[in-house]
């Protein structure tokens, strides 16, 4: 029977090692074998279980409810499916009270227990929509707290992933304004794949990358991200960059121009 180390499983499934450990320790969802030295080893059955868990999370089921659904498949389909995590309501209550400690605790646990893509679509985006409906005098305060803790936690998550990275280095360039949460999540998802990410925030000009010494020596790929339509001048610079560099230039977000690799 073939067994896989936790880092291999992370690469195969897209689930962070810290999340796999949390699913085992806190929720008892997976029971990998252990080597004599204590390292976790996962079977094909464990991998199938992980994919089943991912399927329920994608439907909006909170991680705490997944085990019961997996064990009672007949009733599973009739159970609640939501477009946001249960933790979202708790987080909104903490933000409404400007309770920074509680809000950070909830958000830190969510980042640890769910893939980044689920955190963004089923927690962060619902919170942003809810805050948009709050009356102006309080909205800016609550949003300020939310943005601050998101930036701090996402940078910490990227650094944690970087410490375990072993598949090369990426220069991640955000062409959004400074502090783009979307760019940070996109960078975190790249780091989640085992790539070491160097994150550049709020970049306005990329043409200098084409002539900068050492870029191709230090990085195996360049990632450009923007959640906005870029001026034609920037699009032209990106096209020139793709021609000038021998490493892949990968565009994501809403960057639109001919010849780019879109994700």
TrEMBL record:
Location of the HTH merR-type domain: 3-72
Gene3D superfamilies linked: 1.10.1660.10
Keywords, sorted A to Z: DNA-binding, Transcription, Transcription regulation
InterPro entries for this protein: DNA-bd_dom_put_sf, MerR-type_HTH_dom, MerR_fam
Signal sequence, renumbered to the chain: none
Pfam families registered for this protein in UniProt: MerR_1
GO molecular function, one term: DNA-binding transcription factor activity
Domain of life: Bacteria
Protein name, entry field: Helix-turn-helix-type transcriptional regulator
């Amino acid at each position: 029977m073939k067994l896989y180390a936790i880092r291999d499983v992370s690469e195969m499934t897209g689930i962070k090692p810290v999340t796999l450990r949390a699913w085992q320790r806190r929720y008892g969802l997976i029971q990998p074998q252990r080597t004599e030295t204590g390292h976790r080893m996962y079977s094909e059955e464990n991998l199938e279980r992980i994919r089943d868990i991912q399927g329920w999370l994608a439907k909006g089921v909170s991680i705490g409810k997944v085990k019961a659904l997996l064990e009672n498949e007949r009733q599973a389909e009739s159970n609640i499916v939501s477009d946001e995590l249960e933790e979202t309501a708790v987080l909104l209550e903490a933000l409404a009270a400007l309770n920074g400690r509680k809000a950070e605790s909830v958000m830190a646990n969510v980042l640890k227990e769910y893939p980044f893509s689920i955190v963004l679509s089923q927690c962060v985006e619902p919170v942003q929509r809810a805050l948009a409906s709050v009356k102006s005098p309080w909205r800016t305060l609550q949003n300020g707290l939310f943005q601050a803790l998101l930036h701090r936690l996402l940078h910490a998550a990227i650094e944690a992933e970087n410490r375990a990275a072993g598949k090369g280095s990426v220069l991640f360039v955000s062409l959004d304004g400074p502090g783009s949460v979307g760019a940070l999540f996109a960078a975190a998802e790249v780091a989640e794949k085992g790539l070491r990410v160097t994150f550049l925030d709020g970049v306005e000009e990329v043409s200098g990358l084409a002539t900068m010494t050492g870029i191709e020596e230090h990085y195996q790929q360049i990632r450009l991200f923007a959640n906005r339509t870029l001026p034609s001048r920037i699009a032209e610079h990106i096209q020139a960059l793709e021609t000038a560099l021998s490493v892949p230039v990968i565009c994501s977000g809403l960057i639109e121009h001919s010849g780019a690799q879109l994700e």
